[in-house]
Amino acid sequence: MGENQANVATPENQLNTMSNIVILGAQWGDEGKGKLVDMLADRFDLIVRYQGGHNAGHTILIGDRKFVLRLVPSGILHPGKTAVIGNGLVIDPLALLEESEQLRAAGIDVENQLRISNRAHVILPTHRLVEKISEAIPGRVAIGTTLRGIGPTYEDKAGRRGIRMADLLDREYFGEAVRQVIADHVTRARAFGLNDVIDADEIVAKYSDAAEKLRPLVCDTAVLLKNAMDSGKNLLFEGAQGTMLDLDNGTYPFVTSSSACAGGASTGTGVPPTKISAVIGISKAYITRVGGGPFPTEALDDQGDLIRKRGHEFGSVTGRPRRCGWFDVPLLKYSAMLNGFESMVVTKLDVLDELKQIPVCVAYEVRGKVTTEMPATVRDLADAKPVWETMPGWQSSTEGISNWKKLPQAARDYVEFLEKHTGVEAGCISTGPERTQTVVREGSKFQAVTS
Ligand code: GDP
Ligand code: IMO
Ligand code: MG
Q1: SS (H, E, C) 2-38
Q2: Other Cβ atoms closer than 10 A to 283
Q3: Homologous superfamily of 121-217 in CATH?
Q4: Model confidence over 282-326: pLDDT tens digits?
Q5: Is the minimum distance from the CB of 335 to ligand 2 under 6 angstroms?
Q6: Annotated catalytic, 58?
Q7: Structural fold of domain 1-13+283-451
Q8: Whole-structure pTM over 0.90, yes or no?
Q9: Residue 42: active-site member
C-alpha cells in the first residue's frame, strides 16, 4: 500500500483503531459517573476530565475505602493510568493540592499519574466572594450553586480576563495580572455591599506557593493526548455534572457554567471530535437534582424521602439533601439526542427494591398539550405536568446482582420499559456502589465499546 493510501481512514479502519469513549451524566448530575469510570478505567490508558471543577463530587467505593474525587479524574486509583485535567476545567489550586495530598496519603503515585492543562482557568478566592454575593442579591434568581467560584471563573474566561494555569506559573506576570482581576471582583462586590477586607498580597503569596508545588504536573495536555493517541493509547473522557446542567442545553439558567455534554469532551481537551468513537450516558433508575430549578417528576412525598434515605441522596460536595423524583423519559431522550448515546448505564436500581409501584414520566403535558419534547424555558418546564405510567415494583433485593437473569422479573421489566420508551439500550445496570455490583448485558453496545 502506498504512503498516501495508508493514511486514508475508511469507516472500517476508523472503527478498528479508535476507542476513545465519553462517560457522562444523562440527567442533573450524581448519576454514578465516578463508579463507572473507575470500573472501566482498567481498559483505557488515560482518563480525562474536560469541564467543571471542584463542584463535582465523584464517589468511588473500593471495599471499605471511599474516595470522593472533585477535580482529579476517577481513573487515578488504577496504578499506571494517567489522569488528565483538561483545558476546559476551572481549578482552585488550593483545592487541587488538598485532593492530591489525600491521594498521596492513600498511596497513589500522583507525580507520575496526574497531568494538568496549562490552559485550564484558575479560581481565585474572590471568585467565590462574587458568587456568594450574586446568589444573595434580593430579587435576583438564586441558582443554588455549590459556591466554589465556578460560575464567576467561567465568566472571566468568556470575558477574556481570566487567569490560566500557565499564567499562574509565570512568576513575572502572575502577581500583577491577578491583582487586576481581584480589583475587578472587589469593585463588583463592593457595589453589592461587601465590606470584607481583601488582602491581594496574601492571595498572591498563597497561589505562588501552590504554583511551585503544581508546576511539575502542568503541561500542554492537548499535545500529551495527541501523542498518546498516536502511540495507540485509548482515552476515557469523564464528564462532570450532567446534560441538564450543561450551559447551552440544560435547564437554563439553573445550570452550571460549563459544557457537560459530549461536545465538551473535545473543546475541553483539545482532542478533535473525529477521535471520539462512542458516548455512554449514565442515568439513575430514578432522578435527582441539587439546587434550584424546575423538576417535573420531583417526589415531594414519603416516596421521595424513601429514595433519599435508601440512595443516600445527600450532596457529596455540599452535603445538601438531593431532591428526588421519578425517571423522566422526555429528559432522557433529549439527553441521548444531544450526546449521541445509544447505550445507557442505569444505576442505583437497588434503591428502588422496596417500592410496591414505580411511576415513570413518559411525556409532559404543557398547558393542555402533550409532548415528549423538552421545553426550552424554565417557565414552560415548571408548567410541565408528567404523564405517568406505573410499573410494578419487585420488592426483593437486587443489591450486588451481577447477572441479568438473576434480577427479579419485575426489575427486568422495569429496565426494558425504560429502554422501550427512551429508545436507548440499557447495556449496563448498577446494583450497588462497588465495582463488582454491576450487570453488563451480553451482546450490548455497552459491552462492545467498553471491552
Ligand atoms: P457522580 O457525581 O455521578 O460520580 O455520582 P456521586 O458519587 O455524586 O453519587 C452517586 C452515589 O451513589 C455515590 O455515593 C455512589 O457510591 C453511589 N452509587 C453508585 N452506583 C450505585 C448503585 O448502583 N447503587 C447504590 N446503592 N449506590 C450507588
Ligand atoms: P457531579 O459531577 C449535581 C449543580 C449545583 C447548582 C448548579 C450550578 O458530582 O455530578 P455550580 O456550582 O456548578 O455553578 O452550580 O449545578 N451542580 C451539581 N449537581 N452534581 C454535580 O456534579 C454538580 N455540580 C454542580 O447544585 O444547582
Ligand atoms: Mg456527584
Answers
A1: CHHHHCCCCHHHHHHHCCCEEEEECCCCCCCHHHHHH
A2: 29
A3: Adenylosuccinate Synthetase, subunit A, domain 2 (1.10.300.10)
A4: 999 999 999 999 999 999 999 999 999 999 999 887 788 999 999
A5: no
A6: yes
A7: Adenylosuccinate Synthetase; Chain A, domain 3 (3.90.170)
A8: yes
A9: no
